[in-house]
Amino acid sequence: MKIIYVTLNNDDEARKIGKELLKRNLANCVNFFPITCLYKYKGKTTEEPETVLIIKTKDSYYKKVEEVIKKQIDFENFIGELDVENINDEFSSWLNEIVK
């Protein structure tokens, strides 16, 4: 199993991407929630709201998920893949049922 962690501008973007991933069976579940981002860019420190999208998918689906994300947004953001070593059997079964 993989988790793909994405930062976005708002919940609407996360909802749109999440629905598209579920429609294409590239994920069985997504979560999104507001966060505060503090970052340094071009010598300036900025604090602003963002939304994190967490995508639960299977190994080797990163590129397909990334393609969907990039078709939905037109800015540079963080898209990162995290390995999950252990998950409960029930969730694993659900994931394998949805994401072929």
TrEMBL record:
GO terms for biological process: response to metal ion. Coiled coil: none annotated. GO terms for molecular function: copper ion binding. It comes from the Bacteria. SUPFAM superfamilies: GlnB-like (SSF54913). Belongs to the CutA family. PANTHER family: DIVALENT CATION TOLERANCE CUTA-RELATED, FI09726P. This is Cytochrome C biogenesis protein CcdA.
